[in-house]
Amino acid sequence: MMESATRSARNILTGLHEVMASKNHAQGKLNHVVNIIGEALTSEVCSIYLLRDGALELFATRGLNEAAVHVTRLGLGEGLVGTIAENVETLNLDEAAAHPNFRYVPETGEERFHSFAGVPIVRSERAVGVLAVQHVEPRKYEEVEIEALQTVAMVLSELIANADLIDDPEVGSGIETGTIVLTGLPLVKGAAAGVAIFHQPNVRIEHTVAEDIEAERQRVYSAFDKMREQIDRMASQIDFGTGGEHEEVIATYKMFAYDEGWSRRINEAIDSGLTAEAAIERVQQRTRMRMRQIDDPLLADRMHDLEDLSNRLLRIVSGQMSTAAQLGLKKDSILIARNLGPAELLEYDKRRLRGVILEEGSLTAHVVIVARAMGIPVLGRVRGIRHKVRDGEMILLNADEKSVIVRPSASTEESFQHQLVDRQKKKARYAAMRDDPAVTKDGLPITLMINAGLRDDMSALATTGAEGVGLFRTEFQFLISATLPQRERQQRFYRDVLDAAGDKPVIFRTLDIGGDKALPYLKDETSEEENPALGWRALRLSLDHAGLMKTQARALIEASAGRTLNVMFPMVSEPWEFDAAKAIFEGQIEFLGKLKKQLPSKVRYGAMLEVPALAETLDVLLPKIQFLSIGTNDLTQFLFAADRADPRLAERYDWLSPAILRFIKRVVDATEGYGVDVAVCGEMGGRSLEALALIGLGIRRLSITPAAVGPVKAMIRSAEHAGIQAKMTELLASPPQNLRSALSVWATAQGIETG
Ligand code: PEP
Ligand code: MG
């Protein structure tokens, strides 16, 4: 075994401790450090790059050409060193030149070296430098070696900040001053204006090397006690809604807070000679790295719970208690963070927190579930926002439009504020229309339902006045929980959903997982797909996993005891798939009947039409089903062969294109005479102009996002059915080049409210 692997982190730390305590000037200390590390890891090269004037400058090296020191400079993102700094991520490569970002720097004389490992030196969550080692032989550095490098990087961060060697990350150098527009992924819809506030006024780790290990241990113990107390208090003080997913989210979070493994790992890090703060950070870094390697979006979501807790513990132990939440929001604020845990969000004053912008984030993240319950808009995946905004600058967030305007001009801000007022007015108008029927001016009723996936969503039935849930995406419960929900848990969940719906119907769609919505417990079988959207997903997977489907069927049947069960199958491509899925349900009904369990009073079956092939066999399918729901999200991607998740294609194909509209019209015509309810449940139906077109094609039922119910109802109540039907016939017979604009002009002339 290599000396580096056996040499303890403690020994390196002791060496560093001496360097830090020495009277050497900073440059001398850095030179000393590269030697200690190079020796400890038996690396031919050890180098330190620091961020100065916006570039990474080689500050010290053992093994590279001395003449390159203070000469070699790499931009952020340039070469391996620049990549590490830009992504704040460790690289460990046995063949450096094989990495796509490798850049050969001639003056360093590094051509002899094959393997390369580098870790970022982090200050205030940004990389202020890079510590790198290189080796002549191609080999991967071992985990203990990488961990040693990370520990050293932490100590270096302390050293260089004290010595004033680097750009101060707090100063926000390089941030522009003009208006910029950034885009992201809407996680919770809505719009808001406010001043930027950074979630994490960074906990500065002042000392990394422990003087007294026992004292450090005691500090961590008491911090743990305090943290658990805080969390228990917070959980008991939640003041919005009961009986929703946010409660489960908080329960999971509490479980992490009491995790013994976590406190043990921190203790071990203290044993190696780190201070309490450094040990917490060390363990967190390691977890982060492991999670990245696993590359599982669900685990990544859980990761944010851990980050949240770790930051909390760090703040307590360091006495730097001030997140923006604890300092108190002074005015309307837009919170900016890389990511947030659910409890971190809960700490903010709801009256002043207007919106959240995250650099990461996903629809199933716990923080998003809590934000939804709190009614706060969230835009996720806004790349690099933390480096493009300063604290206190004005931000206009429009999650509906996927955009953020930073430092708007006075006139932009003014018009945005007007839009917000307009939105409020419209909202009030829609709320007042809640109990009005969705009927056209010439008396045609349209059934408006909502799409849902969480118990928290069910309150929208009351607030919108929608007639039921036309699409309940059951996979959501699976996606947000860490383990496969067992039958009892599923059943309880479905029953709660039905209870929340009262007399209104709920159409449960069976699991639509697989492909890009892979679950960790089914992952092995689903991970290697080239075209996940076309892959082994939804009903295809469920039919192969009959156990999973049987369990869900039983849970749904039991939950619907004495009531109507509406069940719908996703991605039906051929009628036999519907037969097979229905047979599983019928089998469960028979089984439960034999057990003398109370059964649903009625079971209605439906299919989603998302795969174009199904349209060719509707005559076979229609006699078997009670309802058909057109899923325009998937249908569009299959019809145009255009990935719905690819942002480059997002705007290319229009829902108001003759191909889609004619296709839907053909389906509607084909259903004539079968007594089958036909609905559209894709996003298309939630856009007023699109909904108008659909009604013109003969669609009478729409299941849409709750926020769209008001606008779509207003559109329906201002339209005449006969007119739109004639207009659509005309437009489809000889489509104009821009059907959208032709329809829009016509609708405006008719006085139809299309948004
Ligand atoms: C659809 O594909 O249109 C649909 C409603 O299902 P999902 O968006 O859940 O795939
Ligand atoms: Mg779909």
UniProtKB/TrEMBL annotation:
Coiled-coil positions: none
One Gene Ontology cellular component annotation held by this UniProt entry: cytoplasm
Subcellular location: Cytoplasm
Residue ranges of domain GAF in the record: 25-170
GO MF annotation, one: kinase activity
Keyword Transferase included in the entry's annotation: yes
Chief site of localization: cytoplasm
Xref: SUPFAM superfamilies: Enzyme I of the PEP:sugar phosphotransferase system HPr-binding (sub)domain (SSF47831), GAF domain-like (SSF55781), Phosphoenolpyruvate/pyruvate domain (SSF51621), Phosphohistidine domain (SSF52009)
Xref: NCBIfam families: PTS_I_fam
PANTHER family in alphabetical order: PHOSPHOENOLPYRUVATE-PROTEIN PHOSPHOTRANSFERASE
The protein's name in its UniProt record: phosphoenolpyruvate--protein phosphotransferase
Organism for this UniProt entry: Sphingorhabdus contaminans
Name of the gene: ptsP
